[in-house]
Specification:
The structure is a homodimer of 169-residue chains. With 169 residues, chain A is mostly beta strands. Chain A has one helix at 139-142, and strands at residues 13-15, 19-22, 42-47, 63-69, 79-80, 89-90, 103-114, 117-121, 130-136. In chain A, strand 5 (79-80) and strand 6 (89-90) form a beta hairpin. The longest helix of chain A has 4 residues, at 139-142. The interface between A and B is large, with 84 and 84 residues. Strand 1 (13-15) of chain A pairs antiparallel with strand 1 (13-15) of chain B.
Chain lengths: 169, 169
């Protein structure tokens, strides 16, 4: 049942942007490193006209999960030095963008929807980022209990003040 | 700055599986519809040998976010009747798989890591599903407060008993 070592499973998977992220952050330098760091930052995602019907009923939710393409990242690093640590960590134990599949994930507050635009608070995403998906945030699905955070223990209080730099560009 | 209506942004985005999901669920019929529904289900993801180094330090985390390809879904529906409701809802207000980019997301408990295998509890993913990413679950990033869940209000208590069927195949 298992694939032979090193043999990649079948084929590539193709996605297309469903829209674009609009934010105040036009450079990786100085960006918040997570939504909590960008408390003041408002922005919006605009979906393509062909997908607008898919936004129906989303306005009843207070928070959404955005998936997007880290489009300015051009390399993969399996060990990274994250913003919140000095030690190199395995890429899957971090949220750094130099992942084998550079997909970003942010949980953000939904402010309102106007036509094809979904206005958001606490956005931590580069302006012009291609949007891949919007999902409703549902505590019963997405909020586990008794959580441990490994190497991040005691470090997340720096989120509000740490800023991004160009290390992952 | 905004794209003309209906003009898709630039190009397609290509990803590759980083591994495969192994679970007891070999058919969409009878699967749990979310991790909470599959409390008894254990499984594992196996990453490709070339990505094993990226798992370093992940074992300190109690929960991970899995992103994967809904590979058995072959169509897009912008309005769907979800498992937990009778009304058609906009696809981006649901977690249904018939999304423009069929990317699935599950928050699951990490049990242990052995080599290239990450053993997981409460898995709600079809056996053989291509894995796209593993991210550590971090409450400070991923757990918003004062959450409202729109059309799902009062319906999520059925999660533990509702099962999947073939409607999204």
């Amino acid at each position: 049942m298992l694939r032979p070592m090193g043999k990649p499973p079948s084929k590539k998977i193709e996605f297309h942007p469903i829209g674009i992220v609009h934010s105040p952050f036009t450079s990786l330098d100085g960006m918040p490193i997570q939504p909590k760091g960008g408390a003041a930052a408002e922005g919006f995602v605009e979906v393509l006209a062909e997908y607008q019907a898919g936004l129906k009923d989303l306005d009843g939710f207070s928070h959404v999960i955005l998936l997007y393409h880290f489009h300015q990242v051009s390399r993969v690093e399996l060990a990274v030095r994250p913003f919140l640590d000095e030690e190199p960590r395995g890429i899957f134990a971090t949220r750094a963008p130099t992942r084998p599949n550079p997909i970003g994930l942010s949980v953000v507050r939904l402010v309102r929807i106007e036509g094809r635009r979904v206005y958001l608070e606490n956005i931590d995403i580069l302006d012009g980022t291609p949007l891949l998906d919007i999902k409703p945030y549902v505590p019963q699905f997405d909020r586990p209990e008794d959580v441990r955070v490994g190497w991040l223990s005691g470090k997340t209080d720096q989120i509000g003040t740490k800023e991004s730099d160009a290390r992952f560009k």
